[in-house]
Specification:
alpha/beta; Rossmann fold; 8 helices; 5 strands; binds thymidine-5'-diphosphate
């Protein structure tokens, strides 16, 4: 079976981590030779540093919002070179929980979409990007329900701004020829998983 690169995107609380895991299980069950799930920020050195600065206990002014776009882009280069590209070269199905669309949405609030897009334009586009579409109010309710402390980007007004930014990102990336499927992320985990699968299977058919 041939390599496929899938990105899962959406607001915090939209279910990306769960859907990434279920999609990987599906690929394994159908016998794909190698299946890799991964995420950004990555587990590499830059990714680990990003997680420390996103921690709510971290003093935001130490690494300001205008520096973050560069850190995320640096982490992405490292993530691709160390993990994603070698896996794809071996024929793996690689599913990443967040990719540059997250930067284009979240970091555009600090430096604007054109500047973030310039930092990210050379990275390999996914074969398909799944955008898990959930209203900001619902996303906040899910974040609070899991008892999490809110991170830097998770207040309701921020989530609303990020949701709007994602709309612009979808337009921008589709204009570049990217394949992005918007999926209704309401409902049960299993219902959403079925919608994700339909999108992935259609992509695989078009690649065959
Ligand atoms: P995520 O791993 O989704 O959060 P969690 O720790 O809850 O699993 O991502 C951490 C945060 O980083 C999330 O709020 C989104 C943000 N982020 C960006 O702002 N830009 C990016 O490029 C990426 C990959 C993530």
């Amino acid at each position: 079976m041939s390599a496929i690169f899938i990105a899962v995107e959406g607001l915090d609380g939209s279910g990306g981590t769960t859907q990434t895991r279920l999609l990987a299980e599906w690929f394994r069950a159908r016998g794909h030779n190698e299946v890799a799930t991964t995420s950004e920020p990555s587990t590499g050195p830059v990714g680990r540093f990003i997680r420390t600065v996103l921690d709510p206990n971290h003093e935001a002014s130490v690494v300001g919002d205008s520096v973050l776009p560069f850190l995320f882009a640096g982490d992405r280069r490292d993530h691709l070179d160390r993990e994603v590209i070698p896996s794809l070269q071996r024929g793996a199905a690689v599913i990443t929980d967040r990719y540059y669309h997250s930067s284009l949405a979240y970091q555009s609030l600090a430096i604007g979409l054109p500047a973030v897009a310039a930092l990210n334009e050379r990275f390999r586009p996914p074969d398909v990007t799944i955008f898990l579409d959930l209203e900001p109010e619902e996303s906040l309710a899910r974040i609070l329900a899991r008892g999490a402390t809110l991170e830097r980007f998770e207040a309701l007004d921020r989530l609303r701004a990020i949701y709007e930014a994602y709309e612009a990102v979808l337009v921008h990336c589709r204009a570049r020829g990217e394949h992005i499927v918007r999926i209704d992320a309401r409902g049960t985990i299993e219902e959403v998983h079925k919608r994700v699968l339909a999108a992935v299977e259609a992509t695989m058919e078009s690649m065959a």
